[in-house]
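Exercise 7. Given the encoded structure of a 562-residue chain, write a plausible sequence.
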């Protein structure tokens, strides 16, 4: 996890502009560098480093003797950098940094093939001064964030988080748009002698339904084909284990978030198993958050005891959660309701990890619900085809919702997130399976995923078949859910008159509830006029939902009611 920032063609003095780069300092607490570009006095890079791989040469921008005209800043991890280095016989390697592979791949194959061969998570800015080109790119699911600002006269500013661009000085009369860079895409700019740029190409290099190009060089060989259930389940296990194994690449201590649900339990159990095989010199720490008697805390305790992790429980009250909401919205840069609700617990557990432990690389279960049709509303899908299409839609929108939440809440505390369920090969394989196979079955969502790990004793059986909790319910006391605590608080924060006038106050995506109104107020305080960063609220499909919480759905039964 790092913070990247770059300007091309600034009309303002760079020493004034660089104060904006400090707004993302939390992403890289280990070191900071601000560097001008030879021959382009109005262009520069800013970089905040969290040292995970190659403690000595990991500072950026990365430049190597072999290609002195290339400059690279990137945030991410390239899990197959060793494999690609050997496969293409790249010599003259100068560092042990995983990102150096981008320079060698670009020089040999060009930008599109380079991006498509990267197995990992990344957002990059690559400058080629010899050919006067600037390239931007972002991984398939947008696990690593990147925003851009481009003015009509060709001034380009790029940053890991939008907050690093909101106070950039420019010469335009009206403020230019700040937009999230699209996942799975790369963009090419011509760099003019003035330092200004012109966009000449924007293309997709990978879509989640396609097998990635780098699969040809993967450590897992070609999988047995066909849709015989036992073959499919074996392939799911192989690819999932491979996804966790490749993410062990780190010089810092690895931990895992553990809610006691299916996804985080599978990740934690596989992580503990592989850490023993790889002979890591420390036990894996797992972290659960919630009220002392919450369903998640109790389930996570059971899993941790079963897998033998060093377990930490972080207790928090509704009052502590409510107090953190404004900070959380500032870091998230969104006013989406369910994203904020679910982020509070993750933000507080990340704060605990940073302050009380030495774990820095944090595994988590994000992406599974979207991929394996884990949301409760999938029980109401009219056809298997509709369910499969909605699964792909959710994956493509992850960068606006769950992946955004997971990145910002951990990065706020200088942690690095790893999400094995969003492994390119794993997701492409799962999405290639017949639509009927991926649907909920016998009243149980994610049936295929659960069935794939049945009888292995990897996690306790009652956890393997535990129904999905609304995250807000799982964290909170059986006496009162986080959802209900929020609703009570919002009654005193927002009055009926304000809510009635919300379409006038907030014409773009007007809030329909007092909770949504309160979040929007806080968002506008920090990011006035930037409501279009969110294109729509996350909502369940097929059931006329007015609230994103699973607990408002008639088909939802929390653990304690079953």
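Solution.
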């Amino acid at each position: 996890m790092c913070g990247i920032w770059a300007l091309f063609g600034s009309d303002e003095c760079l020493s004034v502009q660089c104060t904006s780069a400090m707004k993302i300092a939390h992403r890289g607490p280990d070191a900071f560098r601000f560097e001008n570009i030879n021959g382009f006095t109005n262009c520069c890079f800013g970089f905040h480093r969290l040292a995970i791989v190659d403690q000595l040469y990991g500072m950026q921008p990365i430049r190597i003797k072999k290609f002195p005209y290339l400059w690279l800043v990137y945030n991410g991890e390239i899990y197959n950098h060793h494999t690609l280095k050997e496969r293409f016989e790249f010599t003259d390697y100068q560092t042990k940094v995983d990102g150096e592979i981008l320079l060698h791949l670009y020089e040999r194959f060009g930008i599109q093939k380079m991006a498509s061969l990267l197995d990992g998570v990344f957002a990059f800015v690559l400058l080629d001064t010899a050919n006067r080109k600037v390239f931007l790119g972002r991984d398939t699911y947008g696990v690593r964030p990147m925003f851009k600002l481009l003015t009509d006269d060709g001034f380009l500013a790029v940053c890991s988080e939008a907050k690093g661009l909101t106070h950039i000085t420019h010469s335009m009369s009206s403020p230019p748009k700040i937009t999230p860079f699209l996942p799975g895409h790369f963009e090419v700019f011509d760099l003019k002698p003035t330092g200004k740029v012109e966009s000449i190409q924007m293309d997709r290099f990978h879509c989640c339904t396609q097998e990635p190009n780098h699969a040809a060089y993967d450590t897992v060989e070609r999988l047995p084909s066909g849709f015989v259930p036992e073959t499919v389940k074996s392939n799911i296990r192989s690819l999932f284990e491979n996804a966790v194994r490749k993410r062990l690449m780190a010089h810092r201590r690895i931990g895992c978030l553990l809610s006691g649900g299916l996804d985080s339990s599978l990740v934690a159990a596989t992580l503990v198993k592989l850490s023993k095989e790889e002979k890591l010199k420390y036990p894996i720490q797992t972290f659960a958050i919630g009220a002392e008697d919450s369903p998640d805390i109790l389930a996570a305790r059971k899993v941790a005891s079963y897998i033998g992790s060093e377990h930490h429980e972080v207790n928090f009250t509704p009052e502590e959660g409510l107090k953190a909401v404004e900070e959380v919205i500032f870091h998230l840069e969104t006013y989406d309701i369910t994203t904020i609700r679910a982020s509070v617990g993750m933000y507080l557990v990340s704060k605990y990890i940073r302050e009380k432990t030495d774990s820095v690389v944090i595994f988590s279960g994000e992406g599974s619900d979207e991929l394996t049709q884990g949301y409760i509303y999938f029980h109401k899908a009219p056809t298997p085809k509709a369910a499969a299409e909605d699964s792909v839609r959710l994956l493509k929108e992850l960068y606006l919702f769950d992946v955004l939440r997971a990145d910002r809440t951990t990065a706020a505390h200088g942690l690095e997130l790893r999400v094995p369920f969003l492994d390119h090969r794993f997701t492409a394989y799962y999405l290639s399976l017949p639509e009927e196979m991926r649907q909920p079955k016998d009243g149980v969502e994610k049936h295929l995923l659960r069935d794939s790990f049945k009888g292995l004793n990897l996690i306790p059986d009652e956890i393997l078949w535990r129904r999905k909790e609304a995250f807000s319910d799982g964290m909170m006391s059986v006496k009162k859910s986080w959802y209900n605590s929020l609703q009570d608080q919002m009654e005193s924060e927002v009055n009926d008159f304000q809510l009635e006038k919300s379409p006038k106050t907030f014409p773009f995506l007007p809030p329909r509830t007092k909770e949504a109104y309160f979040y929007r107020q806080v968002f506008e305080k920090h990011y006035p006029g930037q409501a279009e960063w969110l294109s729509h609220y996350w909502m369940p499909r097929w059931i006329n939902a007015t609230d994103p919480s699973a607990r408002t759905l008639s088909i939802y039964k929390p653990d304690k009611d079953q």
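Remark. The mean pLDDT is 93. Students should compare their own answers with the one above.
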